[in-house]
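Hey team,

Filing this mostly as a record. A colleague (T.K.) asked me to run one chain through the structure pipeline before their review meeting, and I want the input and output archived in the tracker in case anyone asks later how it was produced. No errors, nothing strange. Just documentation.

Input sequence:
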Amino acid sequence: MRKRSLTLFSDGNLFRRENTLYFENANGRKPLAVEGIYDIYVYGHVNISSQALHFLAQKGVAVHFFNHYGHYDGSFYPREKFHSGDLVIKQAEHYLRGEKRLKLAKLLVKGSALNMERNLKRWKVADSFDEELGGLLGELEGARKITDVMNVEARIRQEYYSRWDEHLPEGFRIVKRTRRPPGNEMNALISFLNSRLYATIVSELYNTQLVPTVSYLHEPGERRFSLALDLSEIFKPAIADRIATRLVKQGVVRKEHFRSELNGVLLTKEGMKLVLEHYNRELAKSVKHPGLKKNVTKQRLIRLEAYKLIKHLVGIREYEPLVAWF
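Output structure:
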């Protein structure tokens, strides 16, 4: 049985009775085949029994929670089942040793930048970006501190957003990147997709030997899986930005899918469902992997990126960030 992600939008109760998981709401009670669940994304007000959490933990199913506004709140992360003591030490060593951390941070930013460049060329708005990017990547190479790397990354993204806007319809321009709350419809769409992508990456990291709280570009901190933030730099332009662009260019997402709230703009519940339908469809698409010489889903690419990082940490092969060929 191929496992799938489960998204819960409606309010209700998630509980276990004997060896079956149930979701109960105003429409009735529905049994859920836990063996077929890869992870769970909760957008509604859902009460989860302790027995259900124990059951999900036994099956290795992560649960991600989002608030009323579609913002990521946190995850139920079952006890790690794959962790290797040797890899944990290697992962920490690459954070603690400045030159090792700096190298990985630069590679992550470079991969992100090259994926942005691919998007702009795809959208035919890459004029002068190549030259600008060349200079910024030169600065990146010469950076000696993580703060300098982050500064270069922010400037690359600013240049990218300004050119991305040239490709977007009049009513769906970024204008200026704003987050909490998003200042307009396009910012709301980008933030929503990035939030879901982050949670997806958390699930993929759970199924590897990596510790998700030890990272290299972003500073490790409490209450966040900072390694997922690192990897999201690679996949935001390669996946989330492309989905956002396609949805507004094709008129799939329209003004009526947004609401004004929190002194900003947010997706409606129907808007969220629509966006996630396209997001899940995109992650399920297969692409021919040039290295493996076989088809893999776009979601699988995230796990493969984590494996590449593991090989770097243990000294098997230097990490090369994914640059979208698809």
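Quick notes for T.K.: The radius of gyration is 20 Å. The chain has nine helices and twelve strands.
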